[in-house]
Structures are given as C-alpha cells and as structure tokens.
Design goal:
Strand order of the largest sheet: 1-2
Keywords: Coiled coil, Cytoplasm, Endosome
Helix content: over 70%
Number of helices: 20
Protein name: PTN23 phosphatase
Radius of gyration: 50 Å
Largest sheet: 2 strands, antiparallel
Order of helices and strands: HEEHEHHHHHHHEHHHHHHHHHHH
Pfam families: ALIX_LYPXL_bnd (PF13949), BRO1 (PF03097)
Strand content: under 5%
InterPro entries: ALIX_V_dom (IPR025304), BRO1_dom (IPR004328), BRO1_sf (IPR038499)
Subcellular location: Cytoplasm; Endosome
C-alpha cells in the first residue's frame, strides 16, 4: 500500500526500492510468474492512455514499481537544484534490460529509450552548467554540450516512432518540438566553445566558422522556441547576445587583421560527446536498500548462495581475461608511443598537391594590387637618390673644409708660426663661420652614418622580399612550383604502403580486442542461472558451474588468438618502421622546407606595408637632411671665401712690414793667369808647397 500511494519525496524512492527488492526475494522462491501455480492477477493503469492493464505475473508488479521509481526520481530531479549529475535513467535502464516490453505500451522499448535519454540529457545539462560555472576548458565544455545533443537526438528518434506518437498524442508534438529546440540550442553552445578553443589556439579562420555555425543553430532553436515560457525566451536572447557578439568580433578581426581562410564546417573534426553523467544504479538484492529479506525463512537460501558463488566464478574468469588484455594493451601503448606513428599523417603527401589556403589568400590579395612590386622598387630608387645627394653634399663640405685647412697651414708656415695639428677644427679666431660649419658638418655626418646603416639594412630587406612578392604576384603555377615537394621512388612508395597496411592491422587488432571484451562483459552480465540452481542438488553445483562456464570458451579462444597475434604484428611493424626511417627523414626534411618556404612567402607579403612605411620615413628623413646639407654647403662656401680673403689680407700686411732688399755690387771680371802659371793649373792643392 505504501508503494502504491507513495509520497513525492526521497522517502518515497526508498519505499519503492524496498518493495521492489522484497518482490525480487519473493519471486525467487514462490512460483508467481506467468502460468505458474501461485500467479495472481496484478492490475495497473497506463500513464498515457489511462487504460487498466492486468497480468498474472509478479514481474509485471516489479516492472511497474521500477517505472514509478524512475518517474519519481525525475520529478524530484526537476525540483532539486541543478548541481548533481546523477539521474533517474537507472530505473528505466534496468526495466528495459531485465523485463519484457509487452506488459503495456508505456513500457515499450521506444518509450523506455525515450525516458532514459531524456533523463540522461537533463542530467548532462546539469553537468554542463556546473562545468561552465567552474570555467572548465572550452574543449571539455564543448564535448559535454555535444553529449547533451546526442542524448536528445536519441530521445527525438524515440519520439518519432509511430507507436510512440500514437500513444502520446498531442504531447508527442510538444515534446518533439521542445527536444528539437534543445538539440539546436546545445549544438550552438558546443560550437560556441569550439570557437573559443580555436581562439585560444589562434586558429582565427576556424573560430569564425564555429561561431557562425553556433549562430545558425541558435536561430533554428529560436524558431522552435515559439510558445515556450518567458524564461526560455530570455535565455535564448542572452545566448544570442553572447554568440552574436562573438561572431561579429571574430569576423571583423579576421577580415581586417588575421586574414585566415575560413574552412567549411564539414572539413573540421566533429565534436565527440563526453558522457559524464551516471544513472543511479538499481540492485534488487542490496540489503542496505531493501532491508532484511522478509521471506528468508520461506525457502532455503542455498540457491542464492550458489548464485553468488557462480557470480564469483564469472568475476574470476573476467579478472583473469582482463589481466591478460591489460598487460598486452600496456605493451602495445608503450610500443606505439615510442614509434610516434600516426596512421593519418604517416606520409602527408596530400598537402603537397595544392597551395595552402593562407598562401592562396596572399596571392589573391596581391592580384588586386598589381603595382605592389613596382611601388616598392620606385620607393627604393627614390630613397637611393636622396641618399646619394646627401652624401655628395656632405663630401663637398668636407672637401672644402680640408682645402681651407691646407691653405691655413701654408699661411701659418709662411708666417713662421707652428700650424695646428692636421685634422683639427678651424680656430674661432681665424674663421668663426668655418668653426660653426665644421661642427654642423660633423653632426650631420654622424647622423648620416647612423642612418646609412639603417638604410643599408632596409635595402637588404627590400631585396630579400621583392623576389618573393614578384612570385606571389605571378601565376599560381609558379607559386606551386616554388614550394618543395617530395620525390619518392617506387620502392619508397611501397615502403609507405606497407607501413600503412600494418598500422591498419594494429588498429583492427585493437578494435577486435575491444569488441570481444565488450561481448564477454555483456555475456557475463546477462548470465543468470538462478532458476537452474533452485532445482539443482547442492552436491551437483560444482559440475553445473563447470558446464555453464563452458559457454565462455569460444570467446576466450578468440581473445587468446587476438593477444597472441600482437607479437607478430609488432614485429612486422618494427621491420616496416626500420625501412621507413629513411623515407620518414626525407619527408620530414621536405615538410620542414615546405613550411619554411610558406612562412617566408607569407612573411614577405606581411612585410610589404612595413617596408613601404620605413621607406617613406627614410625619404622624409633624407629629404630633410638634404635641405639642411644644401644650406650648410652654401654656408661653407661663403665661409671658405671669407677665410681666403682674410688670408690674402694677412699676406699683404706681412709683405709691407718687410724692408726693401739691399742693392748688390757688380762682380769683377775674372783675372787670367800668366802663361807660365797655366801649366800648374792641373796640380792638386796637395802638390803646393807648404
């Protein structure tokens, strides 16, 4: 009576669980199943149709109690704070997996699947909210949201079943519309967070398409939300503000700053859901839930004890098999990690068949700006011309100063004074104007030398990038030809093909192993021999266990074969990898060159505006310096002329101060020797007498 008129609280859940457990104890002892001796009529009313349904089967009573347990849990979940991910799906799952579906329409497989996925979806929603409040990583939030979508899609499929539609009537349309709205809404949330992840990874093209997809899905959700409460409408408006703002900002940034190609959504990896909610388990024999067995004395517990022993035998079998599987899996994982072989990117040959999107984008941008290279060359020429003019002016000034210095030294030497050291600046006493010119010339020369280094570097950068810009402005065939590509021999291709075949074999082995493990677990879970144990003598129990466990022999053989094959597969993979080493190195080098070339070309495109800006700054600087140098040159000429005039005046004064030269007496004519002495003219002075 308490279970039939159960209160709508957690105490009511406890009552239903206790009653369900006691029914389990009862039906295992007394023949109350269909057409059995102690069967009694049991009547319940279907929740949707309102019809009364009667079955002479105690399992029908258990099924109805389980249904109500799930329904009560869902009611309590709706009233509770949305902070727990435990859900009511456990009762419906146990009902679907352990009881016939023919008792009533509302216990059909489709209705139970609907209930299970609705409960799981709502529980996953709670976990999603918690994850968002906790600021979990964007990718995790996206996967959690994607799982909400998966659960609601399963629920929607159940709703679209013809039997479900006829049973639910108008409710079916309302539920379907609401579930579809949630599918679109949480798909939008998933893509919003995938866009955030792309933003964190600086994949700005992916960010735009994810935010755009989120916006599209949210608009579909809004269309389906007509007639929903104001709280739902408010949530949709808030979400639209968030996603719309994100999309507009991302698109604007990409259009004006990043210029990344926006990929098609179907080319990106789909978001796989992460099922992180757990259904509340149902265990009809848990004494902590059911309380003491009130029928314990009616029938000996030998059958239950034997069943527990059999369960332990099954558990032991599973532990033994899992120990072998886990050991092999550990070896396989370590081996594959050491190999660093990804079947998807072993050769990467497809990437060389086309120009990458980022480079295509730069080529397209230059195609509408055909004068790019011309403008850069002209800018270089103008800058070189101004640079040369400045250098010529400064050289002429320096030559004038050196010439003036030389003249000044000559003057000082004529005047008998010690000239100043060669290369010293003019003295203020001799020419104040030249002193000022010399100082300014030195200052301009220093500025020119510093700017000359910058100018040289700028020209180097321009020469480096002009070739790349010409390439990007030319035909796409030339761009494609400029990108490195691997050259593989037939032997190399055979090595690659063999390696990929063996990697596929490794994956096939993994998948088969997982499938066999799952089959084994399902067989063990469904293996219930309680009925046989009740009619078996205690002395025959061990023999019965051995016979029953033989059903697992075949799947164990398959697993053993799978595990044994691993050694041969890994040996073949090792051999293939050795042969692949040279090809791998060559491909890695080509890929590095390819990436470097792409980055260099992109860098040249991105450097264009900066080069033009710096070139203009250089022109402005040297134009200004040219004007100053020209003025200084005129000033130097004037100062040199003034200094020369001053020197001439000094020379004239010095000439006036000197006395006139004394007249010189006429020289007497040479006397001739007497003839008698001419003979001695050839004698040395040493021959003369003392």
């Amino acid at each position: 009576q308490s279970a039939v008129n159960v209160p709508r609280d957690f105490e009511g859940c406890s009552t239903l669980r206790k009653y369900f457990g006691q029914l389990h104890y009862l039906q295992s002892r007394i023949p109350m199943g269909t057409e059995q001796e102690a069967a009694v009529p049991i009547t319940w009313t279907e929740i949707f149709s309102g019809k009364t349904v009667t079955h002479e089967d105690i399992k029908y009573e258990q099924a109805c109690i389980l249904y109500n347990l799930g329904a009560l849990h869902s009611m309590l979940g709706a009233m509770d704070k949305r902070v727990s991910e435990e859900c009511a799906a456990g009762a419906f799952t146990y009902l679907r997996d352990h009881f016939p579906h023919s008792y009533s329409v509302d216990m059909s497989h489709q209705i139970l699947n609907l209930n299970i996925n609705l409960m799981l979806g709502q529980a996953q929603e709670c976990l999603l909210e918690k994850s968002m409040l906790d600021n979990r990583k964007s990718f995790l939030v996206a996967r959690i949201s994607a799982q909400v979508v998966d659960y609601y899609k399963e629920a929607c499929r159940a709703l679209e079943n013809s039997e479900t539609a006829s049973l639910l009537g108008k409710i079916q349309k309302d539920w379907k519309k609401l579930v579809q709205m949630k599918i679109y809404y949480f798909a939008a949330v998933a893509h919003l967070h995938m866009g955030k992840q792309a933003e964190e990874q600086q994949k700005f093209g992916e960010r735009v398409i994810y935010f755009q997809s989120a916006l599209d899905k949210l608009n579909e959700a809004i269309k389906l939300a007509k007639g929903q409460p104001e709280t739902v409408q408010e949530a949709l408006r808030f979400t639209m503000d968030v996603i719309g703002g994100k999309y507009n900002s991302a698109k604007k940034d990409n259009d004006f700053i990043y210029h990344e190609a926006v990929p098609a959504l179907d080319t990106l990896q789909s978001v796989k859901g992460a099922p992180l909610v757990k259904a509340l388990p149902v265990n009809p024999t848990d004494p902590a839930v059911t309380g003491p067995d009130i029928f314990a004395k009616l029938v000996p517990m030998a059958a239950h004890e034997a069943s527990s022993l059999y369960s332990e035998e099954k558990a032991k079998l599973l532990r033994d098999v899992m120990a072998k599987i886990e050991a092999k899996n550990e070896v396989l994982d370590q081996f594959m990690d050491s190999m660093q072989l990804d079947p998807e990117t072993v050769d990467n040959l497809e990437m060389y068949d086309h120009i990458p999107p980022i480079l295509m984008e730069k080529c397209a941008a230059l195609s509408v700006r055909p004068d790019t290279v011309k403008n850069l060359v002209q800018s270089m020429q103008v800058l070189s011309g101004v640079f040369t003019d400045v250098e010529a002016s400064l050289k002429e000034i320096r030559d004038l100063l050196e010439e003036d210095e030389a003249e000044e030294r000559k003057l000082q030497e004529l005047l008998g004074k010690v000239p100043p050291p060669q290369g010293s600046p003019p003295s203020s006493s001799s020419s104040p104007g030249l002193v000022e010119v010399s100082k300014e010339c030195s200052k301009y020369m220093e500025v020119h030398e510093k700017a000359s280094f910058t100018n040289t570097e700028l020209h180097k950068a321009m020469n480096l990038h002009i070739g790349n810009l010409r390439l990007l402005s030319g035909p796409l065939e030339q761009v494609r030809a400029a990108l490195p590509s691997p050259t593989l021999t037939e032997d190399d291709k055979q090595v690659l093909q063999n390696l990929k075949r063996i990697l596929a074999k490794v994956q096939e082995m993994r998948d088969q192993r997982m499938s066999l493990e799952q089959q084994l677990r399902e067989m063990i879970q469904k293996d219930d021999i309680t009925t046989s144990l009740v009619t078996t003598d205690r002395s025959e129990m061990k023999k019965l266990f051995e016979e029953q466990l033989k059903k697992y022999d075949q799947i164990k053989v398959y697993l053993e074969q799978n595990l044994a094959a691993q050694e041969n597969v890994l040996k073949a993979l090792t051999d293939a990898n050795v042969k692949y080493a040279a090809v791998r190195k060559a491909l890695a080098e080509v890929e590095h060159k390819w990436n470097t070339t792409v980055q260099t070309l992109v860098a040249s495109y991105e450097a264009y505006e900066d080069l033009m800006k710096k070139s203009q700054e250089g022109k402005d600087f040297y134009t200004d310096l040219e004007g100053k140098a020209a003025k200084l040159l005129e000033k130097a000429r004037a100062a040199c002329q003034a200094a020369e005039a001053t020197r001439q005046q000094i020379l004239e004064k010095e000439m006036k101060k000197q006395p006139p030269p004394r007249p010189t007496a006429p020289k007497p004519a040479l006397q001739k020797k007497p003839p008698e002495l001419e003979a001695t003219s050839g004698l040395d002075t040493g021959d003369l007498p003392p």
